Amino acid sequence: MKKIIVVKSAGFCFGVRRAIEMAFAAAQENTKSVYTLGPIIHNPQTVQKLYEAGVKVITQEDIPNITNGIVIIRSHGIPPQLEKQLYKYNITILDATCPFVKKAQNYAQELNKEGYQIILIGEPNHPEVKSILGYAGEKAIVVHSKVDLDYTKLQNRIGIVVQTTQSFQNFIEIINNILGYIHELKIYNTICNATATRQDETLEVAKKVDLMIVVGGYNSANTTRLTELCRKQGNATYHIETADEIKLEWFDDDINIIRITAGASTPEWIINNVKKRIEEILL
Amino acid sequence: MKKIIVVKSAGFCFGVRRAIEMAFAAAQENTKSVYTLGPIIHNPQTVQKLYEAGVKVITQEDIPNITNGIVIIRSHGIPPQLEKQLYKYNITILDATCPFVKKAQNYAQELNKEGYQIILIGEPNHPEVKSILGYAGEKAIVVHSKVDLDYTKLQNRIGIVVQTTQSFQNFIEIINNILGYIHELKIYNTICNATATRQDETLEVAKKVDLMIVVGGYNSANTTRLTELCRKQGNATYHIETADEIKLEWFDDDINIIRITAGASTPEWIINNVKKRIEEILL
Description:
Distance between the termini of chain A: 11 Å
Order of helices and strands of chain A: EHEHEEHEHEHEEHEHEHEEH
Radius of gyration of chain A: 21 Å
Oligomer: homodimer
Strand content of chain A: 15-25%
Helix content of chain A: 25-40%
């Protein structure tokens, strides 16, 4: 008896769902042109659906050319310096920054005001990290792993905020490595529970599984991390974007228990398609 | 060839040396009676020497009976509530609180003012911990080990200070266990380097040794911890207060490398006596 089950917490988190709903709603009102500054989420299929509904992706360079349009700030947020630029033009700004990311931005701003040197734990090139970093002051450092730490650059009073999708383990490891070098540490744990819950549930499930399918954009950091975590458990794990990528040869006779998980930016319809496709193969 | 070496950082730390010098100096001036509120350090032999110089140990209950004397606050400090009581009487107060303990008291006061619930990492019955706790507000909790943590009692904003003689490992373990339960954590690492250095040097030396002698008062927390750490390394370890306790049978023929270490409250003359006594046995 083959079993295919989707992990309960797979897919859209609160912030992503909210941003996408805001984008579709703005497009439906249909009075002005609607743009998102960068793809609204790390999921090309959703970006395509939005495009079909009239929402176009623009870059920072396109801003001066927009007249009388709506620009949506995506869930990752943007640095305050860029937000100020937007206000210079005749643009309606729709801020879909995830409320949890907004909190991390506020904490970074507060810590900076209090004179702390900020260590932002996260991926240096991730748009969320860049948006928080904009609030963190000039002394701020982004650290993704304990091996990135340059202790000679640490001041004596450190403030910590963390990319909402980081793993708790990494967060703790970096703090442990800093603690011995400094005197004062003020930490805001800005990891989002949705990410932690999804990772925990996926890992729990991954213990009793023959095959793990992780669904999500290849450019989605949290999807990639889910894949890494499953592989660390020693599971056969495939990261796919859509059902089309599923290969027959993955499903040997001894593969009985199959679980599907998905990153925060993966829409339900893609997850459902993946499930259906696997059911077709196994029938 | 038998080798006996005293660990470099064994014995008095800065705060203890300072407090004892202040006590002897006050006794020498000889104008008023001199008292210490509790034994000045956790070393009965030093307390005896001070007694011979005219410095008497009193308890809190004795305070109302002192007229026109000098009361020395020992290096561990006292709670502010008790300090206020002292000021009610005609007493000269000589504050020998270790400057590092004073810092921990100040941080506890500051964190309490900022609305944090304070977790004080340390031994609940240690006078230093009691002195810091007096500044930490009513919500404060003392935690000595991660197993003491009652997560249901944790508020969402926690401030941490730590008994100056705690091990860094214990400090980190407790923080790691708290981090997952709360949102905001402000940490002051108030561990004194002298303790850490003494522990590190002792442990480093303990790797290449046949016998470890730890010298210090049985009521000295940091001496007891040194003993524990050496035993964890698997070494033959004896905790003694004075040279008189050394036993011949500890020195079998296969005991060649002997190291002596001592807690922060152990005076140099006691360490030297221990060394001399072992040399006599081995000659």
